[in-house]
Amino acid sequence: DTNDSRLFAFQFYSDLDRLKLMREKDMENRMQDALNAGEFVVYLQPKLSLKDDTISGAEALVRWQDPERGLIPPDEFIPFFEKNRFIVEVDLYVFDQVCSLLRRWLDEGITPVPISVNMSRAHLAKTDFLDAYEAIRKAYGVPPELLEIELTETLVFTNPEALFQVIDQIHRRGYRCSMDDFGSGYSSLNLLKDLRMDTLKLDRAFFTSQNADNPRERDVVTSVIDLAEKLSMSTVAEGVETPAQTAFLKEARCDMVQGYVFSRPVPIPDFEALAFGAADSEKA
Ligand code: C2E
Ligand code: MG
Ligand code: MG
Ligand code: MG
Q1: Best residue for ligand 1 mutational test, from 61, 81, 84, 154 (most atoms within 8 Å of Cβ)
Q2: What is the predicted ipTM?
Q3: I want to staple 233 with a disulfide (CB 3.0 to 4.6 A). Which of 20, 81, 195, 228 is the partner?
C-alpha cells in the first residue's frame, strides 16, 4: 500500500544521499592533490562564426582526469566545489592553463583565437578577486582582449548590483565579458539594458525542438538575437546539435554557434588540429 511505497522511497533516497556524501568526502580528500598532480584538464569547445564558417573562439571547459575513475564531467564535481569554494582554485588553474596556451600560440606565430573561461560566483566573495586573474595574465604577457569571462545568468537575481560592478571591473582590465546560459532561468529582458556584456550566450533551452521548425521558438530566438544586436552584444548559440538549427541561426543573424553539430569539447591538441590544422600543414 501507499505507506510501504513511501517507506521504500525514503529508504531509496537516503541510500542515494549516503552515496553522495561518501563521494563528496572522497572528493574533498583528494581535490587538492588532484589539482597539484594536474588531474584537472582543460578541454576546448570551438565557437564557429556563422559569417564565414571559421573557428573564431573557444570555451575552456574543465574535466577531472581521475587515474582510477576516468574522465569525470564537470557536472559531477563543480556543484560540490561551489559549496566548499574549491571552485575558486579550479577556475584560477583553468585560467592559468588558458593563458599558458595563448602564450604558446603567440610564441609559435599562430594567430590566436580568444578563449573564454567560466567564473563561478564563489569568486565574488572577495572584492579583489580579479587581481588574482590579472597576476596570472601579466605573468604570461597575454593581451586581455584574448580573454573572455563567462558569468552565469543566475547571478543576476542574487545580486544585480554586485554583478554590475563585476562587469565594470572586468571591462576596466580589458577583458571581454559574456552572459552564460541566458534563457535557462528566469531571465529578465529588462535587465539586459543594464548589463554591459559583450556577448550573450543563448542557452540550449532555446533549442528544444531538434528540427528547428517550431515557429514560436524561432520567433523568440530571432527576437532575442535582434535585441542583443541593438544593445551591441554579439550572440553565441549554445548546444546547437543539428544542421537545421545552424541554418536557422544563420538566417536569424546569430554571430556564432557552439555545439555538438560542429564539435564537442576536445583536448587541446585536437582543438589545435581543428582550428589551425590547415595552416600547419601549409607551413610543413
Ligand atoms: P557551460 O559553461 O554552459 O558550458 C557549456 C556546456 O554545454 C558544456 O558542458 C558543453 O559540453 C555542453 N555542450 C556544448 N554543446 C552541446 C550540445 O550540442 N549538446 C549538449 N547536450 N551539450 C552541449 P560541460 O563541459 O559538461 O560543462 C557543464 C558546465 O560546467 C558548464 O556549462 C559550466 O557551467 C561548468 N563548468 C565547466 N568548466 C568550468 C570551469 O572551469 N569553471 C566553472 N566555474 N564552471 C565550469
Ligand atoms: Mg560557459
Ligand atoms: Mg552555457
Ligand atoms: Mg551551463
Answers
A1: 61
A2: 0.98
A3: 228
